[in-house]
């Protein structure tokens, strides 16, 4: 019985940090999602600005349109690279969360296998003799006279003190 309790205690201890670690990973992914949404909005504005420009704006050398066009293209490239970086970070965080869960599952499987081996090693006579639903009271009620606690409701006879 002591080994069962130790298995349960070890399992509970191993799971205590799991929810906080997963929450940390998920919160970081949420933050990156929010930043990605903001960045997507900025990319949309940059793209709209590029589409509104005159078709020849990028081909005129040295003019203000060319400077604006080149600035928008450079901004778009930076935003695109940042978006890719955020996406990579989210994938990495998801992989770490999966790794954490997988490692915990492996530990649980190993502990369960050890526990099952230990339970299988218990002699069957001892296991058969133990009945957790058995009443600990004797037929004498534990006081030496009268019916036992479990026996007092077996008949419709009035109880005798």
TrEMBL record:
Protein origin, superkingdom: Eukaryota
Keyword Transport: no
Coiled coil: none
Any Pfam family hit: ING
Disordered, as annotated region: 133-161
Domain Inhibitor of growth protein N-terminal histone-binding: from-to ranges: 7-115
Keywords, in A-Z order: Chromatin regulator
SMART domains found in the cross-reference section: ING
InterPro entries cross-referenced by the UniProt entry: ING_fam (IPR028651), ING_N_histone-binding (IPR024610)
Protein name as it appears in the record: Inhibitor of growth protein N-terminal histone-binding domain-containing protein
Protein source organism: Tetradesmus obliquus (Green alga)
